């Protein structure tokens, strides 16, 4: 929510709309200042509400942050799952999965920083949520690899960890690089790298072609 979209102070909003407004304001403050430097006063002012209104919805700063973290973490997991389910063509699956990470880091509001670059990462609750998000993404990719290849579960999981790490770190590096490539080209390069490795995987009996070809 931009400054021009902040309702006038005192304007009554339905509870879901107010919550969305407060989360939008909190995200801007957290991204700009970091969790520790952010103050509830700043968030209330950015949202155009009084502090009592803010506290009616969120008991404290940590609850605000965790609500945002849950929102963004769930969004990334859903984007990865949707990418894997969008096609049975395995080359397209690799491309869609890597694209999901690039879309996530390039999203409006830099919400990805709350997940990957927060100054609160050492908090046990935050660390647990981020680790759970990563594990859910890895599990979704592992399931697809194990289903379509002849790899054992632990082998499929290791490949999934590699693909997930490449997609996440590649996307984050791309976003902050000085000579940033066009997003489509950056995705194309990483997909090519990943596909050269995974396409030669042995297939299950359901795929008699003998390798994980682009035709699925």
Kindly describe this structure.
This protein has helices spanning 15-33, 40-47, 51-57, 61-85, 90-105, 112-116, 124-148, 153-176, 183-198. α1 crosses α4, α4 (61-85) runs antiparallel to α5 and α4 runs parallel beside α7 (124-148). By secondary structure, the protein is mainly α. The mean pLDDT is 88. It has two domains: 3-58, Arc Repressor Mutant, subunit A, CATH 1.10.10; 69-198, Orthogonal Bundle (Tetracycline Repressor, domain 2). Helices cover 67% and strands 0% of the residues.
Chain-wise SSE layout:
Layout: H1 15-33, H2 40-47, H3 51-57, H4 61-85, H5 90-105, H6 112-116, H7 124-148, H8 153-176, H9 183-198
Helix pairs in contact: 1-2, 1-4, 4-5, 4-7, 5-8, 5-9, 7-8, 8-9
Query: What structural class is derived from the secondary structure elements?
Result: mainly alpha
Summed up, the domain count is 2
Tally of separate helices: 9
Query: What composes the largest sheet?
Result: none
**Helix content, binned percent:** 55-70%
Relevant CATH superfamily of the largest domain: Tetracycline Repressor, domain 2
Strand portion: under 5%
Top-tier CATH class of the largest domain = Mainly Alpha
**What spatial form do the alpha-carbon principal axes imply?**
elongated
């Amino acid at each position: 929510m931009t400054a021009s979209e902040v309702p006038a102070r005192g304007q009554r909003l339905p509870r879901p709309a107010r919550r969305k407004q407060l989360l939008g304001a909190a995200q801007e403050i957290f991204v700009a200042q970091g969790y520790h430097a952010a103050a509830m006063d700043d968030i209330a002012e950015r949202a155009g509400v009084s502090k009592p209104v803010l506290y009616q919805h969120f008991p404290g700063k940590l609850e605000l942050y965790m609500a945002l973290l849950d929102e963004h973490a769930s969004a990334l997991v859903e984007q990865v799952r949707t990418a894997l389910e969008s096609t049975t063509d395995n080359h397209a699956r690799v491309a869609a999965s890597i694209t999901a990470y690039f879309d996530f880091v390039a999203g409006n509001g830099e919400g990805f920083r709350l997940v990957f670059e927060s100054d609160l990462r050492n908090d046990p609750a935050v660390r647990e949520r981020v680790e759970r998000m990563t594990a859910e993404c890895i599990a979704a990719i592992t399931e697809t690899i194990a289903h379509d290849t002849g790899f054992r579960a632990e082998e499929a999981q290791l490949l999934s960890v590699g693909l997930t790490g490449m997609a996440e770190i590649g996307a984050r590096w791309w976003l902050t690089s000085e000579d940033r490539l066009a997003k489509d080209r950056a995705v194309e390069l990483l997909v090519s790298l990943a596909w050269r490795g995974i396409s030669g995987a042995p297939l299950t009996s359901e795929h008699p072609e003998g390798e994980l070809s682009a035709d699925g």
